[in-house]
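Please supply some protein, with fold tokens.
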Amino acid sequence: MIGAMTIPTAPTGVIVIVAAIIEDALGRLLLVRKRGTDRFMQAGGKIDPGETPAEALMRELGEELAVVVREEHLEYLGRFHAPAANEAGYVVDAEVFLVSLGGRPEASAEIEELLWMAPSDAGGVRLAPLTSEVLLPLLAGRDGERGAGRAAGRAAGRAAGPAA
């Protein structure tokens, strides 16, 4: 039945951004909600002309979270794509970094609310597609690899026996 068909539409544009994965000692992720929106996402934003992704992220974190981050606190994780959370028909092209914070973040500039969320609680929070569809699975994979590496190291240690 032709009238019932849904034809997917191509994105009308791409928004190039940087995004920060910030974890606390309990493994919770710091997410932000921008004023006038209802979805939580990673802190970050658009890259200004002439900025590197790292420079853009350091600037954005200063503006949004009122923290100072230096380049040595950034670990590049990769480039990822997902539907934009607040711009219908757009896709975000995100350069994503794992970030070590040296201060206490505070909602600043356009940020209305901060949330420290355990990944296991994600089902109860309205999340941006980049967060829910890309970054949470990425982190789950990294945690699985870390756990497997730790288990293999413990097994190797048991096989080798105590040090003399």
